[in-house]
Task: structure prediction
Amino acid sequence: MNYWLVKSEPFKYSWEEFLRDGWTYWDGVRNYQARNNLKSMKKGDRVLFYHSNKGLEVVGISEVIREYYQDPTTEDERWVVVDLKPVETLENKVSLKQIKSDERLKDIALIRQSRLSVMKIEKKHFDMIVELGRNASEFVKNR
Result:
């Protein structure tokens, strides 16, 4: 299993909308590296959902339920989507500020490649963020 992080501006598509929809295809990616990451996603992979621009926080966990196919919002064959479904809303949103201040997360792709909208992350980073999101006191304890 691989681990990923996808970004969405909450005013365009929020976690709450995702929960209401029950699933979505991840469309609109127009960056080649992000597109290649979509192509590398496999059914069952876990994906952190990050509110970008406004919020700047990880808010939930989703899962890849269908591997890449042609982006239905364009006829340009270069662009693809994957289908995602929500798995868990994190009890505590994990802010970018928290992530940047945690020494254990200093090498996470979210900091190194801050403008990339679809990125692979290491399992250890995924697990740390999920733990922070499930237990806010864990962040304070490990500062």
Summary: The helical segments are 15-21, 32-40, 96-101, 109-112, 123-134, 136-141. The chain has one domain: 3-141.
